[in-house]
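User: My instructor asked us to take a sequence, write out its structure as tokens, and then describe one feature of it. I'm not sure where to start. Here is the sequence I was given:
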Amino acid sequence: MEFRLSDPMVFTNATVVTAERAFLGHVVVEGGRIAEIGEGLGPRGGLDCGGDYLLPGLVELHTDHLEAHYMPRPRVVWHAGSAVMAYDAQIVAAGITTVFDSFRVGMDSYEERGGVGEQVAILADTIEQARAADLLRADHQTHLRCEIPSPNVVEFLEEFLSMHPARLLSLMDHTPGQRQFRDIEKYFIYYRGKTGKTEAQLGEVVRERQQVGSERAAANRPRIVAIAKAHGLTLASHDDTTAEDVALSHSEGVSIAEFPTTREAAAASRQAGMATVMGAPNVVRGGSHSGNASARELAETGLLDILSSDYVPAALLMGAFRLADAPNVGGLPGAIRLVTKNPAEAAALFDRGEIAIGRRADLVRVCAHQGEPVARAVWRAGRRVA
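Assistant: Let's start with the prediction itself. The structure tokens for your sequence are:
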């Protein structure tokens, strides 16, 4: 993939957004790294950004959007290579230069076997092959989302890690009646639309899942945590709801709290030193689709550290800009930290995430169109990829 421009490369007349401030200035890139930052047009000619924003490349810790490309309709499996390339292009077009592909590990017995399920290994293989062929635009990392009550989660996790590297693992439990679906009616609404099952069929699913959920979770959770630690993976919780949920996560060495469903859990996560992640679609839509905590309200009370695009890649940039005016965020620089520096550091990627001397030149040129931010061009390590 050849989009490389001259080296060194100079961005001029740009509204540069660093981790601390935004100013009209220039950025010089040499050898894929940021070599110079300054106010004014700079020492020599270059790419005139026309006053557009120049941001660090966005860092996405949790998106399962690849599944929508691989299985665009129920029981319709698309060509894996085509799905990966389309997903990669969409990710970068949204300004995301580092993406954690969030593969679900473990299936529940109630689920259709036609789901993505164990086919995630095929997608992981395909991503590795595309990387080896220099076809990927974004830097892809692996995030394993482990459904704790699943009967096959431990076996499949061990098998996957024996063949594929990973960096992040999250502990999920979607048993109805707790965490994300503590409101059973929300569970029925969500899965009626997703599965097409009747009320009676879903009622049977709820009874089955509640019966086996706690027993399996108690047995599987410590085993999953031990495997993650043995492989040096960063641990994340998922949908913590109570202070007790957070205390359990903290005791296991969890450092990232994904999508806490209540303000209580978000506050407890902050007190425990865990980075709090909320969904950017929650910000853009004005609330959670599951009726849980508001991402904007957490941001306004200083309890939000990271945004994730979750199921809409374009939401990440939109969500950050919409939070720029929120109290306790820190203006536009603070809002951009939510999608760049903070997630990079939470994942121990200290070579990227901000426009600073020596950092990797992952950059996004952003303009405003009809009041919304649009990524006009994207560079990864000084190489133009969109």
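For the description part of your assignment, you could build on this observation: The mean pLDDT is 90. Try explaining in your own words what that tells you about the chain.
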